[in-house]
Design a protein that fits this description.
By secondary structure, the protein is α+β, with helices and mostly antiparallel strands. It has 5 helices and 6 strands, in the order H-H-E-E-E-E-E-H-H-E-H.
Length: 131
């Protein structure tokens, strides 16, 4: 996973990646309900695998170009050579925010940590819970 992805900073900087994700036809398909995601832009021959997760208000992710057989070929050049998220990450982030795409969700690490604590408390009836 990358360091924190700054989607809003890139939007304010008129990012080419954000513009491409917004203006181009793109397909986003989850491999599993919360990712990874397969992303393909209509104007490109390459297909990418994107991982994206939330940790409270912070976003983390990664993007890889895929061979035709589905194996990772290399890290996305748009992510490697820019200061912000690539167009593929923007496309998944947009799909998550789009209510018309109900099958696209990301993991929220903060929520998973909270759920884990609640589950542990339930498992022992709250008797061994300590702070």
């Amino acid at each position: 996973m990358t360091d924190r992805l700054r989607f809003l900073d890139a939007l304010h900087a008129d990012s080419g990646s954000a513009e491409r994700a917004r203006d181009s036809e793109v397909a986003v398909a989850p491999v599993e309900p919360t990712g990874p995601f397969i992303v393909a832009f209509e104007d490109s021959d390459s297909v990418h695998e994107v991982t994206l997760r939330r940790d409270g208000e912070a976003w983390h992710g990664d993007c890889w170009a895929l061979h035709e057989d589905g194996d990772r070929h290399g890290r996305c050049k748009g992510l490697t050579y820019s200061d912000g998220p690539c167009a593929h990450l923007f496309a998944v982030r947009s799909a998550v925010a789009d209510d018309d795409r109900p099958g696209v969700h990301v993991r929220d690490a903060a929520q998973e940590r909270a759920d884990s604590v609640v589950e542990r408390v339930r498992a022992d009836g709250g008797r061994r819970w300590s702070r």
